[in-house]
Amino acid sequence: MSEATQRKRQGRLRIGTSGYQYRHWKGRFYPDELTQNEWFGHYAEQFDTVEINNTFYSLPQADTFEKWKKAAPAGFEYALKFSRYGSHMKRLKDPEQSLGAFLEVAQRLGDCLGPILVQLPPNWKARPERLDAFLAEAPKQYRWTVELRDPDWLNDEVYDVLRRHGAALCLHDMLERHPRVFTADWTYLRFHGKQYAGSYSRQYLVAEAKRIAELLHEGRDVYAYFNNDQKAHAPHNALDLRRFVNDKQ
Prior knowledge:
globular; single chain
């Protein structure tokens, strides 16, 4: 492939929600007649990706990942939230231990494994050397993204660490005026709403769609997940955003 052809490559967009098994989505997103066992099938008809939260709180058994892989339609990807044992308890120390335990089961997803989100704790000041050591151990065949919850981390030294390892800075709205810095040839977006509630306005989503369309035109893959699960705003905002991005292309 020529260099000119590579430059013209259109990035791929994947939009979904953070989690999908919410009882309060029944009747709002999931039809009333569906059983809970049928929810994922309905979700996967609408979206080609989902962000899995429970891998952060407690690492499921290997057979759970195998069930997820079996349930996924062709081309579907699971984004996984890295274990809080490694990010919050160990504070990125001894990365070979926490990474090994996590990837031993996560790799069961095979081609269905998408990005891995490492969310760092709030009220923890920047330790770029520790992040550097962690990402040095993180296998490069996977896409890694880091969500920074303390503003002290939002600095050039940390961005340089992310760039050096090809990891994407997670862009999110939990921190006010979070910088839009791109540290990899792809990016990861999280929309948390107001404490996981509320619906984003059409004006906001249209503006975000314009920015995403520009990133795709540059050749960046974009992963975007809505975490405002209350009253099923997340899936409806996700569907709207995807429609608005398509309108911009």
